[in-house]
Amino acid sequence: THNFNILSPQQQDVAKMLLENGQSHLFKDWPAPGIDDDQKKSFFDQIIRLDSSYPGGLEAYIKNAKRLLADSKAGVNPFDGFTPSVPTGETLTFGEENFIKFEDRGVQEARKAAFVLVAGGLGERLGYSGIKVALPAETTTGTCFLQNYIESILALQEASSQGESQTRIPLAIMTSDDTHGRTLELLELNSYFGMQPTQVTLLKQEKVACLDDNDARLALDPQSKYKIQTKPHGHGDVHSLLYSSGLLKAWYDAGLKWVLFFQDTNGLLFKAIPASLGVSATKQYHVNSLAVPRKAKEAIGGITRLTHSDGRSMVINVEYNQLDPLLRASGYPDGDVNSETGYSPFPGNINQLILELGPYIEELTKTGGAIQEFVNPKYKDASKTSFKSSTRLECMMQDYPKTLSPSARVGFTVMETWLAYAPVKNNAEDAAKVPKGNPYHSATSGEMAIYRANSIILKKAGVQIPDPELKVFNGQEVEVWPRITWKPKWGLTYSQIKSKVSGNSSISQNSTLAIKGQKVFIENLSLDGALIIDAVDDAEVNVSGSVKNNGWSIENVDYKDTSEPEVLRIRGFKLNKVEQQEAKYTEPGKFSFKP
Ligand code: UGB
Questions:
Q1: Calpha distance 279→273 (Å, rounded)
Q2: Is 544 left (phi over 0), alpha (psi -120 to 50) or beta?
């Protein structure tokens, strides 16, 4: 009935495959040959794209979808036979001897590392109109997440290369149609924030076909009968993309050993990277997941040991929406609740994974990078025979260990939340509804967490800093510490930071301190106001004396106030730069800053 003669042989093959896999509805409304031939061809272009971007092709996608949809309809429990228990991992406390030892080791290992940023998500929960990596992590300097990430990797590169200039830590960024163009533009407009353009590889993930029903019939776009409707497949795509692009092999051939995955909006992350890489290297972990103490019902997965009745056992993330039902079904009648410590006994997954490259490539050679998928249809009614809207298969990058053999060394590292984790995921309205005591994960809390972490670190390094004030922005109560920021190259590890701080210094609660230089030494500084130190890398500046001015105050901004820019509205405050002292050093040399 279908005349496919206008098609190329490759297109005819996929047409045949579709018909053999229950997809004849796609052609049901096609007019006679000669009509709409161009659209028909572009339909097949899309089909071929969908076919080539999925491990095993579209046929495998349809088969996997049928199986997963049947399981979902039958209510099959993905954890059937498994009992959850609390796993043991490495727990680190910032500044302790152990922590410093791991940091030193991590810095050494970093020259053999490659970084992978997953940034294909649009961040629907945040509702920000731009791409998330372009969002300022903090507004004191206006540094966006991508800049912070790249400068952190460059700082690590410099610290680990010990003068060997050829070390270049590669960075791959997974984008999607939603983020690709704007990510590339951000990099190009800012000269890659100091990286060599050849150091950075963008890998674009494709969306996958939507499904209309339990027979996995592909959904047509509501606007066009010549287009399949598509949706994101999830961050798990990163594995097949790294594999099929040949990047992993290139890294392996270049002698690299570690691949570090991270997400788009965590302004604290790199404070935890050196130590956790040190843990991977010391413990020879094939997989190391970073974790933080988790509040029950927090929207981060729980790291769990799952033991099967047949004896198999694995340490894996159980996603936040699955943890509660799993616990209830396995002898924890209260489900996902805090223990007497005030936290869930299951560490929270922050989706920062460190994989050892050799075993990783070996595994992907077997799987082609395919990650265990799931489907989450919204059914019309209890008969589960039809969907409210089309669905699709999804996958998550942290599910990678699920296919590993039990002999794989899979571990995790728990860090303090203040040091390691403050993502920007929730819009102001939703953040204000977060149960009291649980983290907001908003632009407000994300920025304040940076000041808090920097203040706590300087305090540990010997600077006197008062306790924070509590303030409310966009309905969220947060700790407000002095607004202290520094460039990653000033101090990425505790040892580096301690080597820059000496004597007797103090910073008042209302102060702002921005260190935009590498060799800036804080000696005997008393700061009550705003101080910006901007020095080229070869200028060594010793800072002491007393700085007092009216500083930068914090003013409330209502998120509904459209006269303010969106980046300020979503955080609920803006900085009013009343008065500051600026110290600028543009030439190499030795300088003393004494106001
Ligand atoms: N992302 C992509 O690159 N492509 C996609 O198709 C989708 C996302 P979300 P999520 O650490 O806070 C994860 O949406 O998926 C990127 C973990 O699953 O921010 O709800 C996207 O750009 C969860 O266990 O998070 O939850 C972003 O960088 C917990 O660890 C990243 O993937 C949680 O993150 C995450 O996407 C967390």
A1: 10
A2: beta
SS (H, E, C) 260-320: EEECCCECCHHHHHHHHHHHHHHHCCCEEEEEEEECCCCCCCEEEEEEECCCCEEEEEECH
Alpha-carbon distance of 134 to 107, in angstroms, equals: 27
The residues that bridge with 593 in the sheet, in sequence order, are 543
More confident residue, 229 or 165: 229
Give the SS3 label for residue 325.
Answer: helix
Contacts of 45 (CB under 8 A, 6+ apart): none
Would you state the structure tokens that stand for residue 70, as one six-digit string?
Answer: 């049947």
Residue 176 near residue 204 (C-beta atoms within 8 A): yes
Q: Are 377 and 391 in contact (CB under 8 A)?
A: yes
66-75, 98-107, 164-173: which has the minimum mean pLDDT?
A: 164-173
In short, whether 263's Cβ falls inside 6 Å of ligand 1 is yes
| 232 within ligand 1 shell (Cβ under 6 A) | yes
Structure tokens belonging to residue 493: 């590890």
Amino acid identity, position 201: T
Give pLDDT, residue 5.
67
Q: Which atom of ligand 1 is nearest to the CA of 124?
A: 14
Which tokens hold the place of 416?
Answer: 């303090």
Which of 140, 132, 233 lies closest to 441 in space, CA to CA? 132
Ramachandran quadrant class, 150 (left: phi over 0; alpha: psi -120 to 50; beta: rest):
alpha
* 176, 235, 353, 425: residue to mutate for ligand 1 pocket, most atoms within 8 A of CB: 235
Could you give phi then psi for residue 577, rounded to 5 degrees? -80, 80
Structure tokens at 339: 């223990």
Q: Where residue 166 falls among pLDDT bands split at 50, 70, 90?
A: confident
- The answer, as to whether pTM is greater than 0.90, is yes
- Only one residue has tokens 């954890």, namely 79
Ligand 1, closest atom to CA 348?
Answer: 30
Q: Is the minimum distance from the CB of 118 to ligand 1 under 6 angstroms?
A: yes
In this prediction, residue 1 has a pLDDT band, given cuts at 50, 70 and 90, of very low
Q: How far apart are CA 119 and CA 232, in angstroms?
A: 12
Residues 282 and 299: their CA atoms lie apart, in Å, by 31
Rounded Cα gap, residues 570 and 137, in angstroms: 12
- Check whether 299 has a pLDDT greater than 90: no
Number of Cβ atoms within 10 Å of the Cβ of 36? 15
Question: Tokens 């209309």 belong to which residue?
Answer: 212
Tens of pLDDT, residues 481-504: 999 999 999 999 999 999 999 999
Please list, in sequence order, all residues whose beta carbon lies within 8 angstroms of the beta carbon of residue 542, skipping any fewer than 6 positions away: 521, 523, 590, 591, 592, 593
User: How much is the ipTM here?
Assistant: 0.98
Q: Which atom of ligand 1 is nearest to the CA of 397?
A: 18
Q: Contact 423/132 with Cβ under 8 angstroms? A: no
CA distance 316 to 397: 11
